[in-house]
Amino acid sequence: xxxRLLRMRVxxxxxxxxxxxxxxxxxxxxxxxxxxxxxxxxQPSIEELRAARHTMLETIVAWRVQGKVAYxxxxxxxxxxLDWRQNxxxxxxxxxxxxxxxxxxxxxxxxxxxxxxDGIERLYPADGAPWLPGGALLPxxxxxxxxxxxxxxxxxxxxxxxxxxxxxxxxxxxxxxQVDYESFRVYGGLAMPSRLKLRAPAADLTLKIMLRxxxxxxxxxxxxx
Length: 225
Description:
The radius of gyration is 37 Å and the shape is elongated. The longest helix is centred in the N-terminal third of the chain and has 23 residues, at 2-24. The protein has three helices and eleven strands. The protein has an eleven-stranded antiparallel β-sheet, covered by helices on one side. By secondary structure, it is an alpha+beta fold.
């Protein structure tokens, strides 16, 4: 009888403890859904990036660059220092040999080239410039080269071919000229050509141009020194 009462007491105490435990345990918190990640912005295509760089280069309408140009013909060749200043459609460039010998100043005014050499000024057709020391005319399109130097096609002429490496123009064929861009350097946060080669197979002429000191925001009116 005593044992039965003891078992009943133990069972009663256990039941009371269980009821107290259930009454003091907080209910489980509701699980909130994880926040959704914001949608990723669409990445621009390579064509869009090329177009953006093209547009940026087109906005540079006043600039100056210095360097060196070397020409090669089947029976002749030579080199000169180059100082090119551009103000919108007006090109002014100076070519000079060692120690300033044979300095030539060329001003592109649209239909004609105004060339000054040894204090004498002459007019030449826009698609022929006397780059040689003897003054021989060469079919060098100054109006187009001012675009090619910036790695842009001449917008007034059809483009035969253009090849890219990423967003950077590596070669261009226009107006019978093959333009190859061999290297670039960054100026003002923008990659600009530093070495390029221009070839005119019809004239058997090759120009190698090395550029340095790009100034994309020149002061003054762009007059050649």
